[in-house]
Amino acid sequence: MLKVMIVDDEKRQREGLLKHIPWEDYGMQVVHCAANGVEALEAARDNWPDLVITDVKMPRMNGLELSKALKAEQPDCKIIIISGYEEFEIYKSAIELQAQSFLMKPIVLRKMKEELAKINSVFEAERSSRQELRLLQEQLEASKPLLVDQFVRDLLGGFATDETAISERAAFLSLPLPSAGYYILSIRPDERSLKQAVEEPDGGRQEFHFALYRLLAEMAVRFGGMLTAYKEGGYGLIAEADESRDLLTDRIDAEKVLIEEKLSRTLTIGISKWKGSIGEAGEGYREAEMALRQRFYLGKGKTIFFDDLGPLGTVPPDLEQTYQDMVSSAAIGDHPRMETRLDEILTGVLRLPPALQEQHMKVLCFRVISDVQRILHDSGERSRAAAARDGVMPASAWDDANRLGSILDMRDWVAGRLSAMVHHIHGDRSSRHSTVIHKVKQILESDYGQSITIQDLAQKVFLTPNYLCNVFKEHVGESIIEHLTKIRMKHAKQLLAGTPLKIYEIAEQTGFKSLSYFGLVFKNMFGLSPKEYRDALLPGESDRRTGSGGESAHETENEV
């Protein structure tokens, strides 16, 4: 029940309101009646009323002074001010105090009841809003671990690069970002030995990764960083640190030894260059992955810095622009140009000393994996899900690339991955557009009688308004507005022919706010006014409607 206080220096007024208002009908209960503002303020501190009904002219503390004090101490309290004096200053003060209502004496009970009903509705709306907000907060807290994990994935995948947006997202998730710079660690447990594989049941794999994740999460806390299980069987960690590599190496080696002893498995860790900007996390993760992949040459259980790879960590500098053009061509669907740029890269790599050729081609494979994943991410959620289903970039891609036995095999593998992406994105885009057009048409057909905006439609199909308009016109051959108008006119004709509704009612039911505009659109489309169309379908109906037993000629004429 809402708690109510009545404040008036006239006893008859207080008792009249208390007796003649059915308070329970409004979900309210009078908890105190006071004769002046001082008494009321003291009682309010004990009762915390939801609503105070107060007179203005009272001894010791008037109603306006009481209202001001209440708003300062209990800002959610609603106030109805009553007065026997119709003065401008009282009105002005009531507005400034955000009073819910202002009523003149003598109080008309009907008016007071109407105000109480309104206030009850306000409280209900506020209560509902608080419940919805609390539910949203609970849902947010429950999903926060997933949101944090996705945030770290977006950083490491290179999908989040704008520092302002990253900072805002981190603040929303209450995540501290590295302030002194950081390194990216790519961590992967080494394969079990044959003896371990025989002795450990397959079910132990999940338990192992659960234990490893827990230990790495504790390590991330000690490094002031963030962790995610980013790749199948692998982990990405953002470790806050300054540029002192020696100290970092000692700390990581100590953590690594501790985890290996607890789990009886070795870890290989690839470490990026030091990064000063959080927007470089994606680049850092690619560097860490390239470093980790060197375990094929350097052996398992190592900590490998990208800085130590020398020229092996990048595509040859003179081919970097060619590489970027190859990826861009694939992204826009220019398959021939993509193939040409790939062959130019292959030609450039073959000019290198034989000892460097294989390593540079493997770097090319690894970069293609990262860039394809980035492009798929940008193409949208549905496209990414379909890409995973269709095997455009399987989870085993890193291992597949590492097992390639020759430079030509690597060239064909890169071409295959990029070609699959081209066919997937551009074929999927056409399919998605058809789905969007179908959904928009369904909405227009079902909601034609309502107010429909391009902005509303765009939000429902998750596209920008301009993009939706262009896609719709490209596929349908007419604009959304033109298509909607045809639907409305189709239904208008049906209603004119098959119902006795008046023309202004038909205009309203088909989404037109203006009767004259409805008539203009109808006549432009069909060459007849709505009235002329109906009369043509029903000969003699006009005479019957304007005769002595029908509607007036004035009504019929005004419908158009």
UniProtKB/TrEMBL annotation:
4-aspartylphosphate PTM positions: D55
Domain spans labelled Response regulatory: 3-120
Domain HTH araC/xylS-type: 438-536
Record keywords, A-Z: Cytoplasm, DNA-binding, Phosphoprotein, Transcription, Transcription regulation, Two-component regulatory system
Pfam family, one: GGDEF_2
Signal peptide: none
Highest taxon of the lineage: Bacteria
Subcellular location: Cytoplasm
Annotated segments matching region Disordered: 538-560
PANTHER family from the UniProt entry: HISTIDINE KINASE-RELATED, TRANSCRIPTIONAL REGULATORY PROTEIN HPTR
UniProt name for this protein: Response regulator
